[in-house]
């Protein structure tokens, strides 16, 4: 990459924005997505909107059978109908699941555990401006970004043999160091952006830990840069208003998710942290390296939460 390209990447803004995507896309190999996914089954959480919907649309266009895993029956059905009309036909299906509710996740596991699942995309996400605690007592972002996805992935481990799991993390994660106590905290001062970024850091660690522990499943984490979605407009209205002309389209934000799901060259590749189809440094800031034992604490706590 040219010196100017490297300087722009270092600026963060012109790395995560649409100009960054266009610059990075010059190195993409079109053959990577010249694939036929007929007969492959993909599950995408939070697929009724934003990046999840763009991911579902792209996987359908490549021929996959796509299951939209959505928490709202109405929003999910509307997305399914639109995607079916747009060419997905009878290859697009809806399962209603709330990732913040273990019983709902277990029902989803029961639905798919006896089938082969080629791709599982953990995309569902939220950023709250005030603390929300789930019925079983966890911060909502921790439940939706970590506990639910972990439960779903462990439940589907057999079905995923030979498949790929993708955690959609965030560039915001790169500002945070894994802190298991913070993931569990339900009292005291609350900053939604920090709480969100903490769970996104934990997703990167979780993906790496699962990938190392499970030889039969490739578990990746990625971040999408900054894309113009309803979630960003609702959760970060000032950031959205300020950066809108620079934001990526949802399809650009979803590009690396689709690439990780579909690229044949990645068959057999072990998981990593990715951005714009390249391995990315998850520890740009040295202070974000985990303290000794913190990764093991995360995995032990997630195991306990499975019950
Ligand atoms: N857009 C960006 O620039 C950006 C940047 C970094 C990371 N990300 C990550 O990318 C992912 C998608 O973000 P987005 O911008 O596309 O957001 P979005 O437009 O708000 O979409 C989020 C999706 O997650 C679903 N969801 C939320 N809580 C759920 C739950 N408890 N159970 C099941 N589904 C749930 C939402 O469902 P409802 O429609 O029913 O609410 C929606 O379908 C998130 O993980 C986000 O952290 C996005």
Task: Provide a descriptive summary of the structure in words.
- The structure is a single chain.
- With 307 residues, this protein is of the alpha/beta class.
- It has one domain (36-306): Rossmann fold (3-Layer(aba) Sandwich), CATH 3.40.50.720.
- 46% of the residues lie in helices and 11% in strands.
- Strands 3-2-1-4-5-6-7-8 form an eight-stranded mixed beta sheet, with helices on both faces.
- Strand 1 (41-45), helix 4 (50-61) and strand 2 (65-70) form a beta-alpha-beta unit.
- Helix 4 runs parallel beside helix 5, helix 4 packs across helix 12 and helix 6 (102-112) runs parallel beside helix 7.
- The radius of gyration is 18 Å and the shape is globular.
- 47% of the residues are buried.
- The model has no long low-confidence stretch (mean pLDDT 96).
- The site of NADP nicotinamide-adenine-dinucleotide phosphate has 30 residues, from helix 4 and helix 10.
